Amino acid sequence: MAGKSAVTREEIVEAAYMRARSQGLASLSVRAVAGDCGVAVGTLYNYFPDKSSLVTEVIERFWENVAFGGSGASGACPQGACFAYREGENLVGFCRRVADTLADAVMELQDGWLAEISTLDGRTKARGLKVERACFAHIEANLEQAIEHDHAVNAELLAQVGAAPLARFIWCGIYESLRAGDRSCSVLFALLEHALY
């Protein structure tokens, strides 16, 4: 195959990620990504021993972009700023920002990849879930920080349930609301405003 003689791991992952975003995870093959990169198939095997490891990297890139780099049309979000607590921000305001940032990413996952992820081999699914959990833990940690910094939150309730369990509850509510198509998480946020303040 004529073409580039060298390619970086980053270029391969980016090409595979862009292919998966436009054509779905099922479109990923070592041959197709090598073609996208303009290199021989064997070149990709220098970086990825099999398709499973390449797919895992693509799933990881998706969640890294969600947690640390923005996603889809919502634009860049340098160094996780989308999920970083901002001084003076109240908890529900922070939650609304998180939901707004995640809405496009969750819809992309649901529309394009969710069914395809279920068909992956066990090892690839397990690796993808590990990366997903790390992204969720990052979001929960920032939610916990927002809870602790919002001094208007009912102190008695917070002492009763704890910041970490509350952060997990809120995160699960945001994620499930988004998956159900409620981009505004209206019910969740109305309940939070009523219960926490």
Question: In words, what does this structure look like?
Answer:
Mean pLDDT is 83; it is low at 70-76. It is built from 9 helices and no strands. The longest helix is centred in the C-terminal third of the chain and has 28 residues, at 122-149. The protein starts with 8 loop residues before the first helix and ends with a helix. The protein is mainly alpha-helical. It has helices at residues 9-23, 30-37, 41-45, 51-69, 91-117, 122-149, 155-161, 163-179, 186-196.
The shape is elongated
**Helix count, DSSP H or I runs of 4 or more residues:** 9
Task: Tell me the radius of gyration.
Answer: 19 Å
Mean pLDDT: 83
| Residue runs with pLDDT of under 50 for 5 or more positions | 70-76
Q: How is the biggest beta sheet arranged?
A: none
- Number of β-strand runs: 0
Assembly of the depicted chains: single chain
Order of helices and strands: HHHHHHHHH
- What percent strand? under 5%
**Helix percent band:** 55-70%
Give the N-to-C terminal Cα separation.
65 Å
| SS-based class | mainly alpha
Brief digest:
This protein has 197 residues and is an all-alpha fold. The chain has helices at 9-23, 30-37, 41-45, 51-69, 91-117, 122-149, 155-161, 163-179, 186-196.
Write the layout of secondary structure elements.
Layout: H1 9-23, H2 30-37, H3 41-45, H4 51-69, H5 91-117, H6 122-149, H7 155-161, H8 163-179, H9 186-196
Helix pairs in contact: 1-2, 1-4, 4-6, 5-6, 5-8, 6-8
